Amino acid sequence: MAYAYGETLRHSITQNLAAFSVSHVADESLREAAVALVVTGNPKTGDATLLLTLRSAGLRRHSNQYALPGGRLDEGETVEQAALRELHEELGLRIGPHHIIGTLDDMTTRSGFRISPIVVWGPKDAELVPDPGEVEAVFRIPLSEIDGDEILHLLPADGREHPVLSLLLPSVGHFMYAPTAAILYQFREVALRGSATRVAHFSHPEFAWK
Description:
Nucleoside Triphosphate Pyrophosphohydrolase; about 20% helix
């Protein structure tokens, strides 16, 4: 199913997110971070896409991993402010708070973070200027691809109750893993399909713990 970028899609995603009861994690020992799930248009096809990055090889944490634009909160910031600031710093895309259309569940990581996913309605022809110090590559993933049933793969996690959630997206050509894959999967389930799907129980691969 193709998803055309436009007000019909924006209304549908906004309504689905508004109907979802977000699960927040109250743990003061965790460091706060936020990521932005930015819906934009493909200027060539008119299809709706989601922005995904490959982190730079020179980064101290999670280098060469697929990620959503985002990072730690600065002092005094809200999660919404942090997500929009990081979006501007990483991709050169400045978007106001009125473009935020919802949130997903908080995601905790083995590295001690609480990640708040913020869903943002971006411009149709988003002009991106990636920061080479943070971003190796940017992908515009069609929402129709994210909505494909064949992308989900659950991998055994030795000694853990729940499997590792991973996604294989044709536009990327490689597996990506939780937590980023779990956030993308919940976006698919909640924002696109209107399902109240939880993903916090899925395991993360060991390389993502640091």
